């Protein structure tokens, strides 16, 4: 399995972690959903992210999930989320994942970082702890982490720490951040791969600004694959027409605190996982919400048929 680098592109789906109704990891569903993502056209996977319920895992569970998904993926790249309060745990999981064949690791900033100096210094500590040979994905998701990484600090991080190969761009609004990065590269700044998040809700616009693809999840990952390919091919109108068919469900899934339950409901409905259960603390959809999602799916299916 190759490593991610500054030119990595395509769609890396953020994988859910399937559980049974008692909160135990459903290993058979983990195999099934891994296959499902690749069958939908994913170029790679990212596991143990925020929408993979990583904070609810023990270290031993995180290691076994990594081992199982990396093996199932074969020669296709898997990025492992290793964010942790301390660098010792981050290093332990990173080293183990890379030994298993991971393509890189993803690190989100801890919420304790409050200043530009602290943010820059933290990523300096991360790359020093991991060494120069482990490719790092910087997750920039201030809506969740509460850490705002300015354009200027991000530029310093890119220039100072070459083992950071990719930005998982989830700032919102953040289209101008992509533009500034690409403009800086044109002026001599080191290139970095940009894969975008937020459920693919701005994917067409992000790619038009210079993003290389997506690193996020959605109940229909084939949408992100198709949008990325159409935008790369210059078929902007077709990409937006297709996106519009999925937009009501994207909008519904984007609700803070509800999105993962929606996503798991859809994946269970599609047979990718056996149960939509979330591990505690966390709960699934109410009957009313599930009915709303099912209605949106029925309308989506009709619209997709109309589009051909």
From TrEMBL:
Gene Ontology cellular-component terms for this entry are: cytosol
Report keywords, A-Z: Lyase
Q: What GO terms are given for molecular function?
A: 4-hydroxy-tetrahydrodipicolinate synthase activity
Q: What's one Pfam family the UniProt record gives for this protein? A: DHDPS
Where do the annotations place pyruvate binding? 215
Similarity comment: Belongs to the DapA family.
Q: What is this protein called?
A: 4-hydroxy-tetrahydrodipicolinate synthase
